[in-house]
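Morning!

This is the sequence you dropped in the shared folder:
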Amino acid sequence: MDTTKLQALVKPLLHAVLKRVHPDFFARQLAAKSINHRSVQRLQGLLAPVLTSATAAESADRRYELTHEPLEFVTRGSVIPQQTVTFSFNQQHTRSIAELQAQRTRDLLGLCKALEIEPAPGTQKEIEELLQQAGPQPVRGLSADAVALLRAARAREARKNYVQKETASDFRASLLAGLRKSTWTPTMNAAKTGQPKLDRRKLFFASEVKPGLYMDVVQRLESQLHELNYSEWCMLPIMVVESWKSAFDGGCTRYLGFVVIPCFFGTKELRRYLQENLDNIRQARREKNTQNSR
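The structure's back. Tokens below.
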């Protein structure tokens, strides 16, 4: 059997499989990434006898011993929705490295069919002609024992990933959560340094504010807290808005009980706003707390 020609035909098939199930495509789905990472490693090891020389193939076959546990992949695709595909390699023992290469190649063709991957025109026929030199095609299937082992493996994966959380898909929510993390309070910081410190747990952003502006607003606020007399109103929550116009409807604010600060604020303008409205904001906050306590 011409192994060089076989390798040239098999490599595009393996590449097509990896394009469908590679774990890098599931960076935000930790459970799916873990399943595919393990299965891709096993798949590459099982195909090592086909993709390497005869001498290396024998050592590869000993290193990547075939287990009874089927391969499992979470697939991605533009036509079919994301789904889970289970595939079991043939369990039959081979007498020679040529028979092993033929068996693993047929398994790869079966995996491509399970993943709905169509080989290039004429590729499958060429492969079958080469494999005929190694012997007839064996009968294969997924036994009841293999199904039971698969279920046990999935249970282990579920227990392992139970405490893991999916990567946050909402960038705005995750950034806000990070900004609010703090182990100090403004009172503690003022006692140590004599300077006020922004309490990020009381900092909120209106929906119209772009997430890319969050950190810039926080840094500007922190650099001007002394000029804004933050120690006098540090117990009040802050609502960052896109502009003054978006925060007020006529003479009334849309955010009762909040200190409203636009993204691009001027220090003098903001100080004047605080001097004129702090009492009203405190009163609105007290009323809102009273309503919530009822």
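Headline: The first helix runs from residue 3 to 21.

More detail when I'm at my desk.
O.
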